[in-house]
Description:
Blueprint: H1 5-13, E1 17-20, H2 21-32, H3 42-48, E2 51-54, H4 58-63, H5 74-86, E3 90-92, H6 95-98, E4 105-107
Parallel strand pairs: 1-2, 3-4
Amino acid sequence: xxxxxxxxxxxxxxxxxxxxxxxxxxxxxxxxxxxxxxxxxxxxxxxxxxxxxxxxxxxxxxxxxxxxxxxxxxxxxxxxxxxxxxxxxxxxxxxxxxxxxxxxxxxxxx
Length: 110
């Protein structure tokens, strides 16, 4: 899926964008199951693209107890908890996550 124009503009204006170590694990898991083809250097490509890593911590894991039970995907729960704990915006096109109505979740399609 493509990012919306306003999200792309925001990324171009801001000097900081993040990726989670939990996302790396999710991508590797999908790669191992054959659902995704990843280059060997995909993590270094994230950094080269200007993204800063946020390591997943025990505090993030504990925060996941406050994520709505409507979200059953464990990776989504981890990422939402991490974004909330770090007080950063979480961009997604997932309708279920967007329907939660939480203030830090943003529509990535806009």
